[in-house]
Amino acid sequence: MAEVEIEEFIDQNRHLATLVDTYRGISESEKHWKARREFLFRNINDFEDPHIDQLLALSMVWANNVFLGCRYSPDLLEKMKEMAEGIVVEDAPVFKTRDEIMKKQVNSISSPNNSSSFCHVLD
């Protein structure tokens, strides 16, 4: 849903929008909440009342992945990706894993163009 579609959905479903707004965490920034709220609106019709907690958990997992770089199982990440399809988060942080950072460091150390050395021979 584009931002205009979200606003139209809210106007047409005011009671649902009011309910969804109660799910905002006290520490969520406006940017974080706006994205998670869209995730909830996109998927709320797929989760009936007794399963709304599952949707809330998935929305937090998605937001934690996007905004904090938390990692989850490939199956869960794929499910979140499908559920979040079309949501645009502007200026989302980019995270690197420890393995990616270590690989870059090893490559830069072993590179023949690397002028720095960790070992110095004393005369």
TrEMBL record:
Residue ranges annotated for the XRN2-binding (XTBD) domain, each copy included: 20-109
Family matches, as InterPro entries: XTBD
Membership in a protein family: Belongs to the CARF family.
Annotated protein name in UniProt: CDKN2A interacting protein N-terminal like
Encoding gene per record: CDKN2AIPNL
